[in-house]
Structures are given as structure tokens and as C-alpha cells.
Amino acid sequence: MSAAGDRLQDTARQAAMALPDVSHGYPFTPRLDVYKVADKVFLIVTDDPNEQIITIKCEPEHARAQVLGYASITPGRYLDKRHWISLGPGPGITERLVTDAVEDSYDLVAERLPRHDRPGAR
What InterPro entries does UniProt report for this protein, alphabetically (predicted)? Predict the structure, then answer.
């Protein structure tokens, strides 16, 4: 079952908050809910009812495959188009896909942190 825009965003928020050492806020604009691990962004949820998307970090090769595989996945809005993708509601965008994408983004960011900043290192 495809995730509607608000469900897609709620799923992404819940997945992010279930991960260790996650913080979130609105550092850029009141319409962008930003999720970080050790002050590094891994998820942006757009709080705009007309643009219900999430933006996540992604390996460039995986990002290209995702963009080609799903009509509602596009190169990342607001950020480097090679390393970020945006997911919107549409065919094939399931809650499982959203959760996996958020977790993968978190892992990608966390593994590149200095060892002492990684979740669980404290």
C-alpha cells in the first residue's frame, strides 16, 4: 500500500525519532523539520501541505537507482542532488520503503562521524 503524503511524513518522523541520539528542530525555516545525528542532517521533512516530501541522504549510485525506479523520488530538494533524494507520495512509496530510507540515511551519516561522536560512543 502506498503511503499518502502525511503518512509518509509521519512515518519518516517516527523512524527518525526511534534512532539513537537524534535531535530535530527548524534551523533553516519554519517549514523544514530537520533531523540530525551529532549535528549532521540526515532527514528533512517539509511542513507544507502542498509539498509533502521528505529529503534524505543517499549514496550517489543508490540515489540514481531510486530516482530511476520511482516516479515520486527525485534528486534532493534544497541540497546536493548527487547525495540527497526527495521522496513524495506515489506508486511504490510504502511505509517500509520510507522507514528503510530514513534508517539508511541515518546510518550513512553516523558512520562518517568521528568515532567519539557516533551514537553510543559516549
Answer: YjbR, YjbR-like_sf, YjbR/MT2646/Rv2570-like
